[in-house]
Amino acid sequence: MGIEPTDLPDVTYGVATSSYQIEGATEADGRGASIWDVFSRVPGAVADGDSGEPGCDHYHRLEEDLDLLAWLGVDSYRFSIAWPRIQPDGHRIEPRGLAFYDRLVDGLVDRGITPLATLYHWDLPQALEEEGGWASRPVVDAFAEYARIVGEHLGDRVRDFSTLNEPWCAAFLGYDVGIHAPGVRSPSRAIAAAHHLMLAHGRATRVLRGVLGPDASLGIVLNPAPVRPVSDHPDDHAAVTLADGLRNRVWTDPLFRGVYPDDVLAAWEPLADLGALHRDGDLDEIAAPVDLLGINYYTPVHVGARSSGHGGGTPAGPGQDHLVEVAGPEPTSALGWSIDPTGLYDLLTRLHADYGVPMAIAETGGAFPDVPDARGYVDDADRIAYLDGHLAAFSRAVASGVDMRAFYVWTLMDNFEWAEGYRSTFGIVRVDRDTMERLPKASAHWYRDLLAARTSAR
Ligand code: FCB
User: Fold this and answer.
1) What pLDDT, on the 0 to 100 scale, is given for residue 36?
2) Domain residues for 385?
3) DSSP class of residue 48?
4) What's the CATH code of the domain at 29?
5) If you take atom 1 of ligand 1, which residue's CA is the nearest one?
6) 347-392 pLDDT, tens digit each
7) What is the largest CA-CA distance in the chain?
């Protein structure tokens, strides 16, 4: 162990959260329902029947959480805005929703913490899902309008925006695999959702650029990963190419090259009417210039071909039925995800070589067993080792010339981990589920000390 403060690249350091995972207060101040409120009520959809209510009750504990961020000493805080607070029915504006983010942003600015706002971290207004959701084209204009509202309202104080968080999850887990909201299982709708998410990103980026001007930093957050074959069998090696297309290139090629990759288009041709979906001009819009590519990295992807005897894993994307994602090798975190900091180094150097765009780690972190002592304190040496290893890999990537601008830890505090509910904990701060009390874990003290030593070493 041991990245030294003096070895830390001179970039922005922070922590990340998302609205639905922490806010709670799902009916407060005129908020509309999101697809996650509805999906969480489906029996069996979320572990233990959990939902984003009460989350971390962040909506009512805002000041305390702002003080926690100040105590940590982070440079920046990455949060997301709940679309159904701003437009409860997907159209009408709710001023009380905007007022909550005013308080959040003002509280950050007062404490010298730079806000990085994500517009969409998966909580689509349910009313828009009922109009067809991401699978139908009108959502693109709805998202651009939402971006305009938020940009005009917060743009005097928030200069760093991401449009989407992980469209791979929103499209494929939401509309193909069906394990995330809205729980649809339809390859053709997933393919449509992927395209509309990308188009919405491009259109919103142009709107935000117009509202915020040239010096704002605009970007998108993806979850690319190195894809590895599960064995040396030739079919497993062959599976890697398409899996890489679906996980990585189908997002980055349109964004940074203005084209969809041919191999993915060929896999999708039999599943969807691509001629009607991908219209003239769409790729130009998707490729709107951005300032920053955010990367969420947790683990490499391990794939195998069904023809070489692999089964049981998850299919991960439309057109991928002949291959499966399987568990990677030990060591793993509590969700069974392989811990592999070298994968982060490999990913960053590859993306730099292929696209040359400035990047940030928008999320990295781990779920661990987190057994509290009698006083509720969690000595999470496993999480510290995880973060330390990934910071070291990040630092090596920077040393080899990769243009990295920021590093955000996922996540500030234990929260609603989507289909895993509250049982899987990623926080550097523990949240007591009965009292909602926040108690920094050893990892929070470690991060705080590292950032403070860096500041004094400067
Ligand atoms: C990412 C999500 C984030 C969190 C982590 C563990 O895919 O962006 O909200 O759930 O995984």
Assistant:
1) 99
2) 5-457
3) G
4) 3.20.20.80
5) 296
6) 999 999 999 999 999 999 999 999 999 999 999 999 999 999 999 9
7) 62
23, 94, 129, 166: the active-site residue: 166
Q: Which atom of ligand 1 is nearest to the CA of 426?
A: 6
Average pLDDT, the chain: 96
Q: What is the mean pLDDT of residues 294-301?
A: 98
Residue 457 has pLDDT above 70, yes or no: no
Cβ atoms within 10 Å of 356's Cβ, excluding its own: 11
Identify the pLDDT of residue 106. Answer: 99
- Are the beta carbons of 47 and 91 closer than 8 angstroms? no
Q: Examine residue 54 and say whether the peptide bond preceding it is cis (omega within 30 degrees of 0).
A: yes
Residue 358: the pLDDT is: 98
pLDDT of residue 288: 98
**Both tokens of residue 169?**
């999850």
Distance 285 CA to ligand 1 centre (A): 27
Domain count, the chain: 1
Q: Verify cis geometry, omega within 30 degrees of 0, for the bond prior to 411.
A: yes
Q: Which spans in 223-356 are helix H?
A: 234-244, 250-257, 262-268, 274-277, 282-286, 341-355
Is 166 assigned a catalytic role? yes
Per-residue pLDDT tens over the stretch 56-66: 999 999 999 99
In the numeric block, which tokens belong to residue 420?
Answer: 């895993």
Instruction: Please name the residues in contact with 301: beta carbons below 8 A apart, sequence gap of 6 or more.
Output: 225, 226, 227, 228, 243, 247, 316, 325
